[in-house]
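REQUEST FORM: STRUCTURE PREDICTION
Request ID: SP-0412
Submitted by: Lab K.M.
Chain count: 1
Length (residues): 245
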Amino acid sequence: MEISLNKYISDSGFCSRREADKYIEQCRVTINGQDAFKGNRVKEGDEVRVDGEPIKKKKQTVYLALNKPKGITCTTDLKDKTNVIDFVNFKSRIFPIGRLDKRSEGLLFLTNDGDIVNKILRAGNGHEKEYIVTVDHPIDADFVNRMRSGVRILGTVTNKCFVKQETDTRFRIILTQGLNRQIRRMCEVLGYNVTSLKRIRIMHIGLAGLPPGKWRYFTPDEISSINQMLASSSKTADGDGGMDE
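STATUS: Completed
RESULT:
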């Protein structure tokens, strides 16, 4: 039985499919000693390496919740000195589910489970992400209404969403999609710059009791609830698109 190369790497717990594609494009992946290309497939007995490191089947499944501080980059590329993998320093290979901008902070999931990554990231599955955002000058009812109704960015209009003003410059927003730098881009279109962005919840898991820079394992109840929520979710072909800020 053959599977796609990016899925093979993701299923091993090495990194997400999107990251695997980057490694392949950068000519850092080999199959049986030969340079690999996007679209390659892997069969039983093939030896896959990334930067010379053999890709091995993952062992125990791991799910972590991290309160990411500003300045940490959501990448598995160890050449990036601010990468989240070195920051967490976990005992085995894990990778982040989705992204938080380097300037942003808050809740980030990490795992070695490629299947759950695909299901959570698929925007069509409608999983909620909640943020507290501060901008550089006072907002008003027009700003809130326009953010709620949808803003044109990246050649599309964002989905309608929950937005609530909390102070003159701070608001709460709940997204069910994850376009690249979505909140920052939405604010910029309306004439605002984000000065602080913190993700406080993903699905039913929040930041309560988790200090900045610290991580914890998912509880058994959280894992059970996530599996129930994802039971009817479909996977996405590339594992991309649902957990950008």
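NOTES: DSSP finds seven helices and 17 strands in the chain.
Reviewed by: T.R.
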